[in-house]
Amino acid sequence: MKKIAAIFAVVVLVVSLASLVFAADAQKGTIKSIDAKAGTVVFCAEGGKSDVTLKADKSVDLGKIKAGDKVEATIEKNMLKGVKAAAPAAKPKASVGC
Q: Three-state SS for 57?
């Protein structure tokens, strides 16, 4: 019984690690340009040193984004799987008192 439990634990561990490898990566950044005809987007991640050209998935509506937009992009193997507007930075609270 202990061998079966150990084998099961190893299988669960391997499957969970494998799912991390194939998970999509969400990155914040800026849309530099869009080529709707070719279905590509040039994206610059925050802190990134260079722009990346991504092929847009069929589910991504390129009409809803434009160059200069700050977005959170879901990327998987150089393919843009999803885009949503980045959350605006929190405004600092005004100091209260004298």
A: coil
Which domain, by its residues, includes 74? 24-85
11 located within any domain:
no
> What pLDDT was estimated at residue 86?
76
Q: Would you give the distance in Å from CA 24 to the centre of its chain?
A: 7
Residue 71 and residue 86 in contact, taking contact as beta carbons nearer than 8 Å:
yes
pLDDT tens string 45-80:
998 888 999 999 999 999 999 999 999 999 998 899
- pTM of structure: 0.64
Tell me the CATH number at 78. Answer: 2.40.50.320
Q: Residue 72: inside a domain, yes or no?
A: yes
